[in-house]
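Quick illustration, no need to memorize.
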Amino acid sequence: MSTPTPLLHVDRLWAFYDQAPVLRGVHLSVAPGELVAVLGRNGSGRSTLAKAIVGLVRTEGTRAIDDQSLASLDTFEIIRLGVAYVPETRDIFPNLNVMQNLQLGQRPGAPLPGVRRWQIEDVLSLFPVLRSRLDTPGGVLSGGEQQMLALGRGVLGNPRLLIVDEPTEGLAPQLVGQVAGFLRMLRDSGIGIVLMEQKLHMAMGIADRIAVMGGGAMVFDGTPDRFREAHEVQRNWLEV
């Protein structure tokens, strides 16, 4: 039986800032409806991997969506293939209100085949606190509210693949649980997710696969059960 084509395929991927390599031959694959948590210490290369997939840094190697190479595509063209990227900085528009930020995330035209069409009402139902803040400028929202807004804006593009970098950084435990539930729901709806995360407990609770980065390379990739037994990996590459 042939192996299904992954939604995202990254192989022997190098990434550079100026001439300095940051990623060193990374491999990663993500299937539709699969959540892969990428763990690692600060400086391990996780954020650079997220940027590399969407073409925000110079790369060498293979990046593909459904076997379509991303090598020659600009970032906006990669997004049009059904990729959403929520960076650690969230990058909301601080002078626009919540509704305007959400409207800017909406994808024009029909969604890609087999992809759910997300509406603003869906986001407000999932993050009800945003409903009471629709007229509030994004720049005065709390960190948790900004994260909800960034995630909501991302899914309004009707993505097949969501890349989200440190979504729980600085959030209270209750909000961490809410974000985890949101990502789990997206995964269950068929969206492939790459989650860059430091909170081991949160990642283990929702991930189908765990990948660990260290020194710009992938040092582990396996199921959560395999990861629990990989004590040397945890000791050498994570803050546990």
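Strands lie at 8-17, 20-30, 35-39, 58-65, 68-69, 83-86, 161-165, 192-196, 209-214, 217-222.
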